[in-house]
Design a protein that fits this description.
By secondary structure, this protein is of the alpha+beta class. It folds into 4 domains: 195 residues, tricorn interacting facor f3 domain (Immunoglobulin-like, Sandwich); 94 residues, Zincin-like; 156 residues, Neutral Protease Domain 2 (Neutral Protease, domain 2, Orthogonal Bundle); 52 residues, no CATH class. The protein contains 15 helices and 19 strands. The strands form 4 sheets. Strands 1, 2, 3, 4, 5, 8, 10 and 11 form an 8-stranded mixed β-sheet that branches. α12 packs across α14. The two termini are 47 Å apart. Its EC number is 3.3.2.10. This is Leucine aminopeptidase. It is found in: Cytoplasm.
């Protein structure tokens, strides 16, 4: 066996799935989903075929044409990878697997009615990155295996569903489509409805996403709706915060080429969502904490939008090359922000990122492997080593190339890179080969190996230079002397300014420092905006 990904059981000698058809029955009382997963291969295959699972109860594996059982086995459980499901095929192109999720599925967050805004109906949403799709349905859970999919979600009639896919229709259930996930009478209950979706572009499994609950929406642009729980205050605040989304999409298209996903909808999730945002194609997931009332939450939207080109369109082949997703996206995000919000805000973001990168060096001082761009994560849970390094060191690497060859040349390179590798999964070596082929001699100007395989921060990385950045850092340094900023010095500050200021304060503060600052004439810190 030769794995193609340190975080997957997928064998390099086996064919990769090209399409998945999902039939899902949601049972909120038990916090489980019963599923029929129809996996399609490009050509008939004979031999063992291995899939990833985690905490799934697999009841049967069938030939979908004859409905005859296929031999299968599950490996012992691995705390990081879960269990491999190996199926023996004989000239088949499709496999039908019946399974059920665990209430503790690592990809699913089930919320009881008291945990929602309206406190009337339950809610469930997914978070499949990095290796959690396997806890919903069996799959080759590696970014190397890009798939198209279709999905039928059978849910309580009083709820609605959204997916990171095109919505086909909402309709009554049909008895012929249950695929064995439950009895036809249960599937077709009067209290049930089917929401049908299709994803017609090949995506990595970690971008599979849905949410089910009492949802509403607001139109904010020709390609964008903002969804959230059906609470007018939340929906109106979200619509106001993200009113400039279409402008950002148009800026992204000018910088990086056509937007290939048709829709760019946003879902504001309940506060339990563990990230700022998740770049699910067509349906970005967002935490409600990005709604700040001053449009600065658009910063997160800019990052998730940038993923539409770098991450979703071109994807890292596995998590060892995560910087190809996040470094490129951080660079692209700041280019979009620079156009929409100005150079000062972009510089502030670079400064916040620089501070975060410096802090990560301290965090990983005993495991410097994870300060590299090209890492070795074999035997390591990717969630345990998640950090700002691939984002900020990756950004610094691309910014260094831009400074070397000039922005116009780098813009041309980026567009060509995206057009060349769209809908593919690549690794660092493939990127470097493309870089050297299209920017001849770049390896003589920049130490590419040091940047991608070296630990720490390379000496030609650069802290940002701007008046507002320098002013805020200077004010933070003055805090050590007991002086807080005056009202007039912070009157125009929004989220990014305060974030940069706070990031540069000492990690521990003496009470006397705070009291001296307050006595010096400002109480502004007591009214710090929500960050």
């Amino acid at each position: 066996m030769a794995p193609i990904d340190p975080h997957s059981f997928t064998d390099s000698a086996h064919p990769l799935t090209t399409h998945i058809s999902l039939t899902l029955f949601f049972d909120f009382p038990s916090s489980t989903i019963s599923s029929a997963t129809l996996l399609s291969l490009p050509t008939p295959y004979t031999g063992p075929l291995t899939f990833d699972t985690r905490s799934l109860s697999v009841s049967s594996v069938l030939d979908p044409l004859s409905l005859s059982p296929l031999p299968f086995s599950l490996s012992p459980d691995s705390p990081i990878l879960g269990q491999s499901l190996t199926v023996s095929l004989s000239n088949q192109t499709q496999i039908l697997i019946l399974s059920k999720t665990s209430p503790s599925s690592s990809a699913l967050q089930w919320l009881s009615p008291p945990q929602t805004f309206n406190k009337t109906h339950p809610f469930v949403y997914t978070q499949c990155q990095s290796i959690h799709a396997r806890s919903i349905f069996p799959c080759q859970d590696t970014p190397a295996a890009r798939v198209k999919y279709a999905a039928k979600l059978n849910i309580p009639r009083q709820l609605s569903a959204v997916m990171a896919a095109r919505h086909v229709e909402r309709r009554d259930p049909l008895p012929s489509e249950a695929q064995g996930v439950c009895e036809d009478s249960v599937w077709c209950g009067d209290d049930r409805v089917v929401e049908e979706f299709v994803m017609e572009q090949p995506i990595p499994p970690y971008l599979f996403a849905f949410a089910v609950g009492e949802l509403g929406f607001r139109e904010v642009g020709p390609r964008t709706r903002v969804y959230a729980e059906a609470v007018n205050e939340v929906l109106d605040a979200a619509a106001k915060e993200f009113a400039g989304t279409e402008e950002m999409i148009q800026v992204g298209e000018k910088l990086f080429g056509p937007y290939d996903w048709e829709r760019f909808d946003l879902l504001v999730l309940p506060p339990s969502f563990p990230y700022g945002g998740m770049e699910n194609p067509r349906m970005v997931f967002l935490t409600p904490t990005v709604i700040k009332g001053d449009a600065s939450g658009a910063q997160v939207v800019a990052h998730e939008l940038a993923h539409s080109w770098t991450g979703n369109l071109i994807t890292n082949k596995n998590n060892d090359h995560f910087w190809l997703n996040e470094g490129f996206t951080t660079y692209a995000e700041r280019r979009i922000v620079e156009v929409v919000q100005g150079e000062d805000i972009a510089a502030l973001n670079i400064g916040i990122g620089w501070r975060g990168l410096v802090e990560e060096m301290e965090r990983f001082k005993d495991t410097m492997e994870f300060t590299k761009l090209k890492t070795n994560q074999a035997g390591v849970d990717p969630d345990d080593v998640y950090s700002q390094v691939p984002y900020e060191k990756g950004f610094q690497f691309l910014w260094r190339i831009e400074r070397q060859i000039g922005r116009p040349a780098f813009d041309d390179f980026l567009k060509k890179y995206i057009a060349t590798f769209k809908f593919q999964s690549i690794d660092t070596d493939m990127f470097l080969s493309f870089l050297k082929a299209n920017i001849p001699g770049i390896e003589n100007e920049i130490d590419l190996k040091l940047w991608t395989e070296g630990t720490g921060i390379p000496p030609d990385a650069m802290e940002p230079v701007s008046n507002i950045y320098s002013k805020i850092v200077s004010l933070a340094n003055e805090f050590k002397l007991g002086r807080m900023p005056r009202e007039d010095e912070v009157a125009d500050w929004k989220g990014q300014e305060w974030e940069l200021y706070l990031e540069n304060l000492p990690k521990s503060v003496e009470a006397s420092q705070v009291s001296r600052g307050i006595c010096g004439g400002t109480r502004k810190l007591a009214r710090t905006p929500r960050l």
